Predict the 3D structure of the following.
Amino acid sequence: MKYSVAGIALLASLFLYQGCSSTTKTEDTSDNQQSQVQSVPQQTYQSKQPSANPQNSNKISSTKNSQATKGKLTIPEKITPNQPVAIKVEIPATVAKANSTNSNSNSNDASQPKQINMVVVSNDLRFFDLVQASYKNNQNIEVKPKFPAPGDYTVFSDYNPSGEKEQISVEKVSIPGEVPFPTELESFSKTKTLSDTKIDLNLSQPNIKAGKKVTLKFDIKQASNNKPVQDLKTYLGQKANLVVIKSSSPLVESDYINIENVNNSSNNQVNFTTKFPQPGTYKLWLQFNRNGQVKTADFWVTVNS
């Protein structure tokens, strides 16, 4: 009987020892697996480093060259709503030098000063202002847009350095204070009336597709009798100016859409072509000079995939 009890005790001790040993191995295996999982993202990140791919190196070089021709904006820390704000734009020395060199060439627009368009929008795209300034050989210019009320704004500076494609600089501005509530709902109507002027937006295709070229046609008429206007004057060097920005949060450089002006339209019509890069909603601001008065008509369009 004593032998049997001792045997049972020995067997029980062996069983408990194996059980404890198995639990420890399970914990060790779990720890090792966790360490391996955590190391995977780091390895993936390292494999995407630009230096490992010559093509990526070319992209970085291209990006640096593009940034080298972009202007630098200096915005005052304190801004009073609805008052002109002196924003300084520093044009890179390479751009100013290129403009100076080209001014001595035989190109058609060599003697013309370059233009910088500063577009100020509230981040919800309800407010819009455009101010233009000229620069030629000077590197530092001053533009004075207005910010109507407290809130968050995005400033797009749009200009064409000589020998370079259009450049866009983006800055964010936040004005402290109580942000006013909207006084009216946004309208997706294709017709706008501004006192004595009626503007109709006609699209070359009713369903706009992302990445597909589309023509934006604006008919400007007398509001009283619906007849074509005859008193359009040049504005910003052309019949009319159009700014298009995608509704996004936050607004970035790619939301500022490139537009081409079509010059062969009739007297009361202004046409533009563009490609909307992504699906979404876009806001359009058409500006034109009618008999010495600049008018701005805004529209919304929806772009599908």
In short: Residues 1-68, 101-111 have pLDDT under 50 and may be disordered. The first strand starts at residue 72 and ends at 74. The chain is about 25% helix and 35% strand. The CA atoms of residues 212 and 275 lie 5 Å apart.
